[in-house]
Specification:
The protein is mostly helical and about 280 residues long. It has a domain at about 60-160 and about 190-275: Orthogonal Bundle (MetI-like fold). It has 13 helices and no strands. Helix 10 (about 190-205) runs antiparallel to helix 13 (about 240-275). The longest helix has about 35 residues, at about 240-275. The chain is globular, with a radius of gyration of 24 Å.
């Protein structure tokens, strides 16, 4: 019996280890290619060891694109978009969860229905709206369409349903108004949900390529995803340089994920202890 249990544990951990290797390998390959010449990408058998060309590739990236300007642009757009989404999504989701008003259920189901519309279908209407508002080419055109999302509102609402009505009633007795209930009572409880939403929103904005490509015209306002395209030419491409630029643009995203994910896990553990 012990042998059978041990074999199951070994098999289970082997499957988990295989999954980890498969998940990490693309990033490992990115680092390997960023430290080698372009010819290493086409070598057979594939080269899996680090090279000594990272500094050269890094210098090439700095010479062929305004990396730090693009990084600053991306950080600004991602931070502002994420902050606005967290505020408006959490406020709306909490309202749908704990306040009843005429047409609230119908409005919520319409909101959920918009999640079935492919994002590509709304690009043209969004572009026309931004054009009519005179916002094309500005950071506002990148941020405004994403200040609230149907998924974010739905996600927060489902989490906010677990907030005890007695807790809200006690806060009302203490003099909290409706916004005070949201700010002082709901937000601390919603911390794990907000951390998850922050991760997905920040990563989505950081990696977005299509919408910035449509609305931005000034190269000085390009985000990283657009600026990286400057590393490729029509006829040739230094893939090691492209890999190095991609690696540099990924590192801040990883740092942000590690920081916020700790808050997400801490919030879950805190809820588990209280329950």
């Amino acid at each position: 019996m012990n042998v059978e249990i041990l074999s199951k544990k070994v098999f289970f951990h082997a499957v988990l280890l295989l999954g980890v290797v498969i998940s990490i390998f693309p990033f490992y390959w990115l680092v390997v290619m960023a430290t080698n010449e372009t010819s290493a990408m086409f070598a057979f058998p594939p080269k899996l060891t680090f090279g000594s060309y990272f500094v050269e590739n890094f210098n090439n990236v700095m010479q062929n694109m305004n990396f730090f300007r693009a990084l600053l642009n991306t950080v600004f757009v991602a931070v502002v978009s994420t902050t606005l989404q967290l505020f408006f999504n959490s406020l709306t989701g909490f309202t749908f969860a704990k306040f009843k008003f005429p047409g609230s259920k119908v409005l919520f189901f319409i909101l959920i229905g918009t999640m079935m519309i492919p994002g590509q279908m709304v690009l043209v209407p969004q572009f026309i709206i931004m054009k009519n508002l005179g916002l094309l080419g500005s950071y506002i055109a990148l941020i405004l369409p994403s200040i609230a999302t149907a998924f974010g509102i739905f996600w927060i609402r489902q989490y906010a349903l677990a907030i005890y009505d007695d807790l809200l009633e006690a806060a009302r007795i203490d003099g909290c108004n409706k916004f005070g209930l949201y700010w002082h009572v709901a937000l601390p409880v919603l911390r794990p949900a907000l951390a998850f939403l922050a991760i997905t929103t920040f990563m989505g904005v950081w990696e977005d390529y299509l919408w910035p490509l449509i609305v931005l015209t000034d190269t000085s306002k390009f985000t990283l995803m657009l600026a990286l395209q400057q590393l490729k030419t029509v006829h040739t491409a230094d893939y090691s340089m492209v890999m190095t630029g991609t690696l540099l643009s990924t590192i801040p995203l990883i740092v942000f994920f590690l920081i916020v994910s700790r808050q997400f896990i801490a919030g879950i553990m805190e809820g588990a202890v209280k329950s």
